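Pipeline run #58 for the internal structure catalog. This entry was flagged by the ingest filter as a single-chain record with no existing model, so it goes straight to prediction. Upstream metadata was stripped on purpose; only the residue string is passed forward. Reviewer on rotation: M.T. Logging verbosity set to normal.
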Amino acid sequence: METMKYEEAVHQLEAIVAKMEQGELDVDTMAEQLKKAQEL
């Protein structure tokens, strides 16, 4: 994974959480996003 700034990582995590809260992610996409969040 490429190195990113803390602010960029936080922004990505916030976007993932917002999509989850709004129910915009299907199960497969949610699994991918959770894996990405864990890596951040």
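catalog note: The first helix runs from residue 6 to 21.
catalog note: The chain has a mean pLDDT of 85.
status: ready for reviewer M.T.
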